[in-house]
């Protein structure tokens, strides 16, 4: 067994360790709150056990785990496809401002945060829908991809504006059922079915629409606005929780802050 020789520890080794720690940290931040986190943790655990079996010279088990990890790498590429694409896009991009934008997505570059969503149009639409007791469920994507839920609805690409949001949720509209997904300043899907949260702490007065908003904000870093059909109440959800606000003006300020990147 090869013994660790700390006298041969070079500066470059320290840099190597710090870089791997950074990589793991940013990978963790990227997948935190999504379903991919369980796979990420699973692979880290298997890798830890594999190294241990190697150290203890348990040949059979270490061979099996080593083989499994080889396949695990492919699973990793499939699961993190979106993130890998963004990362490669950044590396290959010759346009510096695009690179800066993607770097900001990874939170490695702290520039002045930019807001690309027309929050004012969303809030105005919510105010109108609240006044007419029109039910609405709006999910706004942040860093985590929402592609896994988008496929359940109708994909589209329409610029965010107040009348369009209102007409989607208008009671007789064929699109009013389910959730609307907003990415940057575009409505990218309607009639989306979201995963419903099983959290028993959600008050019983909230039905499926609110549970679906809790569900998607638990699993991803998206934020959600719900307008109740029952009483017109507007709710804001983030990280699987209801966020309290005084009035829609305060909600607008909160949204603007949360959507800056
Ligand atoms: N999983 C889901 N994903 C997306 N939309 C959903 C989901 N479940 C329910 N909805 C939407 O919510 C609508 C109303 O559901 P429900 O009455 O149970 O919600 P609620 O939370 O009580 O809201 P409200 O206060 O508006 O009645 C449904 O007609 C549907 O459009």
Automatic annotation (TrEMBL):
What is this organism's lineage?
A: Bacteria, Pseudomonadati, Bacteroidota, Flavobacteriia, Flavobacteriales
Organism of origin is Jejudonia soesokkakensis
Which segments cross the bilayer? Answer: 6-28, 35-52, 64-80
The UniProt similarity line reads:
Belongs to the adenylate cyclase family. DacA/CdaA subfamily.
Annotated keywords: ATP-binding, Cell membrane, Membrane, Nucleotide-binding, Nucleotidyltransferase, Transferase, Transmembrane, Transmembrane helix
Membrane is among the record's keywords: yes
Transmembrane helix as UniProt keyword:
yes
Function text: Catalyzes the condensation of 2 ATP molecules into cyclic di-AMP (c-di-AMP), a second messenger used to regulate differing processes in different bacteria.
Quaternary structure and partners: Probably a homodimer.
Q: Which InterPro entries has this protein been placed in?
A: C-di-AMP_synthase, CdaA, CdaA_N, DisA, DNA_integrity_DisA_N_sf, DNA_integrity_scan_DisA_N
Which residues belong to any copy of the DAC domain? 81-250
SUPFAM superfamilies the record matches: YojJ-like
Please report the name of this protein according to its UniProt entry: Diadenylate cyclase
Which residues fall in a coiled-coil region? none
Q: Which reaction does it catalyse?
A: 2 ATP = 3',3'-c-di-AMP + 2 diphosphate
Q: Read off the Gene3D superfamilies from this record.
A: DNA integrity scanning protein, DisA, N-terminal domain (3.40.1700.10)
Which Pfam families does its entry note?
CdaA_N (PF19293), DAC (PF02457)
